[in-house]
Amino acid sequence: MKETGFYEEAAQRFNSHFEKTIDESYIRRWVSEQLTEEEIENIKKQFKRTFRQEQYPEMEDKLKIWFQEQRERKVALTLKMIQKEALVIFNSLKEAGKNDVKLSKYVKGEFKASVGWLRRFRRRAGISRRMGTHTASKLAENYSEQMSQFLMDIKLIRLSF
């Protein structure tokens, strides 16, 4: 893995896991300040070993698009539904691979959409499980007045200390 690839991928994983946005330069700076060269090399080796790269990137790209469309439509997806859609997409690419040289690896390949693959795919794609929630209640008509009064009360309390 290239030097920059390690930090970029670490930033992507951090962002998808914690739903935050940090730049790879922050990770690079933190690593250089906190760890020795030997510790950095050990982490890079583990990093490479732990997370496999996708074997079928075209299929995973199409699956990510499908997943986003379902999320936008607020469709509740189970893990089994994602696995089934992955198999459908893989088989369609396998058929297309008979005529397209770029997709020829799908013709020879075998794909099972196992639970382990799904776990790794979700990690690579930054997909987390979510539960539907109820809609929030409407704001009070005098919301802005209440908020400004609340802020004034906070300022008074802070000044009294």
Could you describe the 3D structure shown?
This protein is an all-alpha fold and 161 residues long. The protein has two domains: 48 residues, no CATH class; 69 residues, Arc Repressor Mutant, subunit A, CATH 1.10.10. Helix content is 68%, strand content 0%. The protein is built from eight helices and no strands. Helix 1 crosses helix 2 and helix 4 crosses helix 5. The longest helix is centred in the middle third of the chain and has 18 residues. It is flat and about 75 Å long. The relative contact order is 0.09. The model has no long low-confidence stretch (mean pLDDT 78).
Poorly predicted residue ranges: none
- What is the oligomeric state here? single chain
Helix content: 55-70%
- State the end-to-end CA separation: 55 Å
Q: Count of helical segments?
A: 8
The CATH architecture of the largest domain can be named as Orthogonal Bundle
How much is the average pLDDT? 78
CATH T-level topology of the largest domain = Arc Repressor Mutant, subunit A
What CATH first level of the largest domain would be assigned?
Mainly Alpha
SSE order, one letter for each helix or strand: HHHHHHHH
Beta-strand percentage range = under 5%
Structural class: mainly alpha
